[in-house]
Amino acid sequence: MQHINILGTFIFMIIGYLIGSFSLSIIVSKKKFKRDVREYHSHNAGATNSTRVLGKKWGIIILFADGFKPMIAVLVAWGLTFIHIANAKWTPLFNDAFVYYAGFGSIIGHCWPLYFGFRGGKGAASSLGLLLIINPIYFVVAVAAWWAILYIWKMVSLSSVLMVGVAFAISWIPYMPVNAYVWPHDIQYNMISWIILLTWIVVIMRHWSNLMRIFNKTERKVTMFDRKNKKIEQEKQNNKTK
User: What are the contacts of 137-144 at 24+ separation with CB within 8 A?
Assistant: First the structure.
């Protein structure tokens, strides 16, 4: 395994944290709607709560914005690897640094934003953005797992937590196709699983109250699938009466 520059990696994390601390949901809710999205429902600045407070259109916009933050952070870190800066021992500062810690740093910033009193989102959408920039296969599997779990148990929080766990599990599959990555990073490949594990831990921490409500059987469930099933049943009944 190649040596990883700890100082350069730490700087990447700080850069990612500062990028992730920008919260579109808080900015939009305060500037446009004259309210703080964190004062309603689940009291967080994520896409799900933004949909409840600001509407579906803004919820979708915020979903993509939160997902793009880790991707932007990783791309900024990757760009810095082309800048040859050496430390006191003349060791390249960024060339041997681990770029995906920038994405992880942005998730921390999203959850505990520096600019908004350390009260942010829960990291689900941002986790998907990190998975996409690491390996699109992880992203596709995680999204599929999210929808499948939501359909079965009808809880967004449970889907959000378990989808990252599924991504962590498949990250241990040996020889995952390297050509599925955005750019070659086989040298850093063996650290991918650990960065996803750290992300999963953060997502679990941010959803802890939800998990307690699931344990107590008081967690809120979605009704979107119930509506679809009722519509299908109604159509069947209508066809029988014709």
Answer: 137/170, 137/176, 137/177, 137/180, 138/167, 138/170, 138/171, 138/196, 141/166, 141/167, 141/170, 142/166, 142/167
